[in-house]
Amino acid sequence: MKSKSFLTIFASLLIILALLVACAPAAEEPAPVDEPAPVEEPVAEEEELFVPVISKGFQHAFWLAVRAGAERAAEEYNVRITFEGPETEAMVDRQMDMLQVAIDRDPDAICFAAVDSLAAVPLLEQAQEKGIPIIGFDSGVDSDIPLATAATDNVAAAALAADKMVELIGGSGEVAVIAHDNTSRTGIDRVAGFRDRIESEYPDVTIVDIQYGGGDHLRSTDLAAAIIQANPDLKGFFGANEGSIIGVLNAVTELGRDDLVIIGYDSGQQQLDAIRSGLQAGAITQDPIGIGYKCVQAAVLAVRGETLPEFIDTGFHWFDANNIDDPDIAALLYE
After folding, report:
1. Which residues share a beta bridge with 180?
2. Which of 25, 58, 95, 266 lies at 20 to 30 Å from 281 by C-alpha?
3. Sheet holding 234-239, edge to edge
4. Is the dihedral angle over the CA atoms 177, 178, 181, 184 positive or is it negative?
5. Phi, psi torsion values for 270, nearest 5 degrees
6. Does the pLDDT of residue 12 top 60, yes or no?
7. Which domains does the chain have, with CATH numbers?
8. Can you tell me the distance from the alpha carbon of 283 to that of 275, in angstroms, rounded to the nearest whole number?
9. Rounded to whole angstroms, how far apart are CA atoms 153 and 147?
10. What is the mean pLDDT of residues 166-173?
11. Between 327 and 26, where is the model more confident?
């Protein structure tokens, strides 16, 4: 009897124990330990480049506009630039000194507008030996050392000026040219573009004289006055850059020859006023801001090892009193 009671009690205890185990809360798994977040490496800022920009001068508003474009590109591409040029576009030796100093500073690249298309070649060879990329702008050099040149197609632009001249003088007569020089690529190409178009397409038009005033408006004034006085039947005058056309305008005003058809190049306040007043027929405008911007942009791409086109065409347009205030033209003009 006692044995049976003991078994009954023992069985009851087992049942109670089993119930207790079943009702007990399950053991919680240890919370996962969060892995430490990977430390992100700071993104390194692109290293600032140093690019000297050596122009043909700074005395005309054109170069100030080129500088503005270069500075805009420099800001966008994290480039430190210097912008300098000789006092006049006739100072070849002074520009060569500037180029030598720039090379000696071991820059990342150099932007260069040559006063003399041949004189700079030995120094450019020196830069090439040091691995410094050269980008031409406005006025190239007679060498394949520059990786690219950002400029106007000056031959085509001057040919358009010749077409306009012939149209406005009535298809025949005598015309003359004042240019800045016959050593820079721009001077050579603008004279050639104008002269070759006249000679090849317009047999009834004669170019009686071509003179070079160094881009200086005072010297150009004297030259233009001498041409006008020596050629009383003159019907038209082409000034191939800002300084040249200012000289023509001065001479025409002094001599009272407002009957001449005057065509210029670039802009500047005096040309803009002359076109609006009717004294000047019109002009070819380049894109000076675009020239400055694209030369610095090309320098950056060259440093990165990217392939560049040999010629970066920055464009040109004819403007006169009819379209001088059109938004697309006005954006290219400077005072």
Report:
1. none
2. 58
3. 205-212, 173-179, 234-239, 261-265, 282-285, 317-320
4. negative
5. -65, -40
6. no
7. 49-152+288-315 (3.40.50.2300), 154-285 (3.40.50.2300)
8. 8
9. 17
10. 98
11. 327
